[in-house]
Design a protein that fits this description.
Helices cover about 25% and strands about 30% of the residues. It has six helices and 14 strands. It has a seven-stranded mixed sheet, sandwiched between helices. Helix 5 links the parallel strand 6 and strand 7. The protein is globular, with a radius of gyration of 18 Å.
């Protein structure tokens, strides 16, 4: 698969910014990912992200670090942080921007080091793709955490994108799958990738799956548009 995301980040880092990443979803929506936003400062981050960064502690793994904006803030504020991304271009940009510790890997293939905090922002839990994969990811995250460790993640309940009836009920298509499973396709300049699944997870389902996998789940903060920040901590036995 072409590293479209990484190429776009490399272009921006090299002052070769001419266009943004275009996304197409199975919800019949077309949108843009503005490249400057991926290089934002702490002051430009949404409140949920700022709260998450302030809750980070100990040794931190920034999962899906992208251009490294979260990791760099943590590093600048004295935290021990590793930025992990499956995009080779993203990792190259993180290094160019001054991030000291990076890993080029798929998170499910990453082993051998334990952390106090796993950070998954910008709907980072979406990497699970489908609800049926969520337990696999949570189980692997558990293996990467030290005793008392935590996962900080944000996501959105996308029920608001479906029609509402007069009684306030939501008309969700009965297609046999969870409504938060969305197929995406992205393009950048002349490149395009095949559709891939992405998961938007409502808080109650996250809470249920967290409990089943040995985590306590706490709602830290809610955003203005059906988004939320959650903290998962390992249960003490």
């Amino acid at each position: 698969m072409k590293d479209i995301f990484g190429q776009a980040l490399l272009d921006f880092q090299a002052d070769n910014y001419t266009e943004d990443i275009t996304t197409f979803s199975s919800l019949d929506e077309e949108d843009l990912i503005p490249l400057p936003y991926l290089f934002r400062s702490y002051g430009e981050m949404p409140a949920l992200e700022q709260t998450a960064l302030r809750h980070c502690q100990g040794k931190i793994l920034d999962v899906g670090c992208g251009a490294g904006s979260h990791s760099l803030w943590l590093q600048e504020n004295g935290h021990e942080v590793i930025g992990l991304d499956r995009s080779k271009g993203a990792i190259a940009v993180c290094k160019q921007r001054g991030l000291h510790h990076t890993v080029h890997s798929n998170i499910l293939e990453y082993r051998g080091t334990s952390f106090d905090t796993l950070l998954l922002l910008m709907n980072g839990i979406g990497i699970a793709g489908k609800l049926e994969n969520l337990d696999t990811y949570l189980s692997h995250f558990k293996s990467l955490l030290r005793p008392g460790g935590q996962i900080l993640l944000d996501s959105s309940d996308i029920r608001y994108m479906f029609d509402e009836d007069d009684d306030g009920g939501i008309w969700v298509p009965d297609n046999g799958r969870y409504y938060g499973e969305v197929d995406f396709k992205i393009s950048y300049k002349k490149w395009e990738v095949e559709p891939f699944p992405w998961l938007y997870l409502d808080y109650h389902r996250l809470q249920n799956h967290a409990l089943q996998n040995g985590f306590l789940c706490e709602l830290l903060e809610e955003g203005a548009h059906y988004d939320y920040l959650a903290k998962l901590t390992l249960k003490a036995y």
